[in-house]
Write a structure and sequence with these properties.
- This protein is an alpha/beta fold.
- About 40% of the residues lie in helices and about 15% in strands.
- It has helices at about 15-20, 20-25, 65-75, 85-95, 115-120, 140-145, 160-170, 185, 220-235, 240-250, 275, 280-295; strands at about 1-5, 30-35, 50, 60, 100-110, 125-130, 150, 265, 270.
- The chain is globular, with a radius of gyration of 22 Å.
- The two termini are about 30 Å apart.
- Bound molecules: S-adenosylmethionine.
Length: about 300
């Protein structure tokens, strides 16, 4: 499997990628890592990758053009020649299929990354991980160039690199041969084989599936007891704000509105008119509406 990482900080990656399981997996030709510097696809002498947001606001937004070119530069004709037996066998079976790949934007607005997602990605030949920085990435990258927008959790990081590392770690270890001991995958938390029921009803962490393990392990029992204790003490201390209570019952999160920067039109994909209007009240209302629309 090949991971293509699009980043404006390529210098972060080499040390991380050559360490431990990932380093070994590359030596064994089980995975391939391609770090692509978005700045290499700029055309001006300052190698500009960002611009100010349409509609105003703090910070800068990563531009669509260099990212689009960086994606275009990827040779998706995934080489199948160097891989070891299990992979080669799988490839033979799938020879007639086109290579399976997914282009992913890392974003705090995205769908929550779960073990079920990791398992889905581990069946692909190729992942493209687009790392944002500053205020984020022009929304048209997610809307028109990528297949998915993925968040690693309900918090904001400085950049998508750590999020991409989380995805890489979770996916790579599921690939045949990457972990020395495949047994350790069998009963791993959140895996498709063992789905832990939630501590107090509701949906399991990956959003679905039934427990096929009726007898919890000692570790699970202890964890559930701890979770129950924590949630009881949290509930008793919590000062209830009617607004946040409303949000919690709908299990919604407030996510930021989409961001856009120049050009106003790219390949016919337009920035929403209202952001070009200069009407701050209209822009504010539009952004408010977008926040609600994105709530989960
Ligand atoms: N203004 C954005 C917001 O409020 O949602 C935050 C941008 S953040 C400072 C810069 C970049 O970090 C994002 O474009 C994204 O690539 C990455 N990032 C931040 N939090 C993330 C999360 N929870 N999951 C995945 N990527 C995240």
């Amino acid at each position: 499997m090949r991971f293509n990482i699009l980043t404006i900080f390529p210098e972060i990656w080499p040390e991380y990628l050559k360490a431990g399981i990932l380093g070994r997996a590359q030596e064994d030709k089980l995975v391939e890592m391609a770090v692509i510097n978005i700045r290499d696809f700029t055309t001006d002498k300052h190698r500009t990758v960002d611009d100010s947001p349409y509609g105003g606001g703090a910070g800068m937004v990563l531009k669509i053009e260099p990212i689009a070119k960086a994606i275009d530069s990827i040779n998706f004709q995934f080489s199948k020649t160097n891989f070891q037996t299990i992979r080669q066998l799988a490839d033979q079976i799938q020879e007639t299929e086109t290579p399976r790949r997914r282009i992913i934007v890392l974003s705090a607005r995205g769908e929550q990354f779960t073990q079920a997602k990791a398992e889905e990605y581990a069946k692909l030949d190729e992942l493209v991980l687009i790392c944002g920085r500053y205020e984020g990435i022009d929304q048209r990258v997610a809307d028109y160039l990528a297949d998915e927008e993925i968040s690693i959790g309900p918090y904001v990081l400085n950049g998508g690199e750590v999020a991409a590392m989380v995805v890489i770690e979770a996916v790579a270890r599921l690939l045949p041969g990457v972990l020395g001991n495949e047994e350790s995958l069998k009963e791993e938390s959140y895996s498709q084989k063992i789905r832990n029921p939630p501590a107090s009803g509701g949906t399991p962490p990956d959003g679905g599936g039934k427990s096929i393990n009726p007898k919890p392990s000692l570790r699970q029992t202890l964890r559930r007891a701890r979770q129950n204790r924590n949630s009881k003490s949290l509930n008793s201390k919590r000062v209830v704000n009617p607004e946040s209570q409303k949000d919690e019952t709908a299990s919604s999160f407030t996510v930021e509105y989409p961001q856009y920067t120049k050009p106003a039109e790219y390949k016919g994909w337009k920035v929403p008119e209202v952001l070009l209007s200069g009407n701050h009240e209209e822009i504010r209302k539009w952004r408010e509406g977008q926040k609600k629309k994105s709530a989960r």
